[in-house]
Amino acid sequence: MTTSGAVPEPGVAVALATGDWFTGAPVNQSPVARATATPGSGTAPLVVTFDGSSSSDPDGVIASSAWTFGDGGSAAGQTANHTYQTAGSFSARLTVTDNQGATNTTTLSIVVNPCATAPAAPSNLIASNGSGRIVMLKWSDNASNETGFYVERAEKAKSLQFSRIATAGANVTTYSQTEAAGTWVYRVQSFNGVGTSGYSNSATIRVR
Ligand SMILES: [Ca+2]
Ligand SMILES: [Ca+2]
């Protein structure tokens, strides 16, 4: 037997026999977050594919999915790719929200190991003049495991004492900045958690 009708007023007793159902206002059931990470571990930089498409809601639909990757990164959507640049253990979290605003979260553990070797050296460094006194550098990225690149500069008149002037991110192959008048020499190297590569060729340019 099923007793249907409005939710009873507070204080009003409703007698239900064993086996009876009271079908008043429905209570929203929470969604269930389910996620996979492929691969779950590997060497930095580690590209991980996250998939939360098997998440479900027993009485509705998943309205939105939000990821945090444990290293400061985040994304929205059922699936996401994320690159872990540095070694460490990370807790990636998927939070799903159903069509009535209820949420559920699941956590995945990602282990990123330090890369075993220093990256390959960049090459083909070219310096060119931009407008004003801007010097534009461009090089070839020969590494797949770099964290980034160091840019070094020397003043040609001062017997090539190089110093580091900038750090560029992974897979970046250009850098520019405004210089004083003079003749400048540049070189670039890549780096990661293990160490630095050798240097690229040097590129010399005169700024008037
Ligand atoms: Ca629901
Ligand atoms: Ca690269």
Task: Label this structure with key terms.
single chain; Immunoglobulin-like; 2 domains; 4-stranded antiparallel β-sheet; 17 strands; binds calcium ion
Q: What overall geometry do the principal axes of the alpha carbons give?
A: elongated
Rg over alpha carbons: 29 Å
Task: Report the top-level CATH class of the largest domain.
Answer: Mainly Beta
Give the CATH superfamily of the largest domain: Immunoglobulins
Could you estimate the helical fraction of the residues in percent? under 10%
The count of helical stretches stands at: 0
Q: Which structural class best describes the helix and strand composition? A: mainly beta
CATH architecture heading of the largest domain: Sandwich
Bound molecule types: calcium ion
Q: Give the SSE string.
A: EEEEEEEEEEEEEEEEE
Distance between the termini: 94 Å
Instruction: Count the domains.
Output: 2
Percent range for β-strand residues? over 45%
Give me the CATH fold name of the largest domain.
Answer: Immunoglobulin-like
Please list the strands of the largest sheet in the order they lie side by side.
4-10-9-6-7
Low-confidence stretches: 1-6
Biggest sheet layout: 5 strands, mixed
| Number of strand elements | 17
Overall pLDDT, averaged?
91
